[in-house]
Fold this sequence. Notes:
InterPro entries: Clr2, Clr2_N. It holds the Pfam family Clr2_transil. Residues 89-151 form the Cryptic loci regulator 2 N-terminal domain. The structure is a single chain. 20% of the residues lie in helices and 31% in strands. By secondary structure, it is α+β, with helices and mostly antiparallel strands. Strands 1, 2, 3 and 5 form a four-stranded mixed sheet that branches. Mean pLDDT is 82; it is low at 1-8.
Amino acid sequence: xxxxxxxxxxxxxxxxxxxxxxxxxxxxxxxxxxxxxxxxxxxxxxxxxxxxxxxxxxxxxxxxxxxxxxxxxxxxxxxxxxxxxxxxxxxxxxxxxxxxxxxxxxxxxxxxxxxxxxxxxxxxxxxxxxxxxxxxxxxxxxxxxxxxxxxxxx
Length: 154
């Protein structure tokens, strides 16, 4: 029986940021991932904020950040594996067990409005508890997982 392919770039097309993108689907074997290193100070949307209060928290799976990550990573994987021509690519999903958290730092102004001064995204899920600060930092890891299964690459 043939193994399920871990990668396919069939006819699926997504429309993101005013561009049509070919969708990369990764069907990786069961990955050893860990949530041990996940941030614990998650934003509580029910919490009242007071003027002058400083905030520092994480937002899990912010849609815009996840979509941006999937687009960047899709293009990088396509380029790394040599099938990027003029097409644009994106991942269908983040690999199983990996979660994108967005760190937000800021303060509440005098009128009670939240002002985010800095925002950074980090990908968590590696079995060591380490986090990835960018798609380029994560690329060698994900390409390594794909290439470990080159017989099921299509």
